[in-house]
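Comment thread on ticket #2218

A.B. wrote:
> Attaching the input chain for the structure job we discussed in standup.
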Amino acid sequence: AIELNPNAFEAFYYYGRCQFHQGNLEMAAELFKKASLIDPADYQSRCLRVQILRGLGRTKESEIEAHKAIEVINKHLEWYPDDSRALYLGAGSLIASGDQQRAKRWLIRSIEIAPDDSVVLYNAACNFSLLGELDKSFKYLERAINLGTVSSAWMQNDEDLVNLRNSPRYNELLQNTLKIEKSVN
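C.D. wrote:
> Ran it. Output below, let me know if you need it in another format.
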């Protein structure tokens, strides 16, 4: 698709997601960067890039990208104030930029909008992990897994969950996720 149309946002965005899923984080970061250049109004590619850069230890780059992402999300939220995805992805960028209180407000709002959406709950778990609120993080991760759409590969490559990984509780949740995936396949 990229060869056919080098300006196809979706090709770069979804290829980036695939690379992240496979653990190719440097490649994913580059693909998300290209996607954001093609569509400067897209917040998703910027926010996912923030997460990856932070996980790779490229803190300064992550902060710069976070500020850009927040600008884009603020504009988006003017038109779509109840977009839970913008709120939870934006919360990660707010954390990267140092605005923890606003990040918590956005997380709570995203959960209020979609309290049974496993993707919202998973991302709340990630962001609460980054904030050091591990009990909340585990609570939301457990709820997300119980709803059945959490990817074990995503969990294993997601540096936002690094604060949970030394806990037996995390390993138990990962094993539950693997069992769910096996039963579906």
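A.B. wrote:
> Thanks. Noting for the ticket: The radius of gyration is 16 Å.
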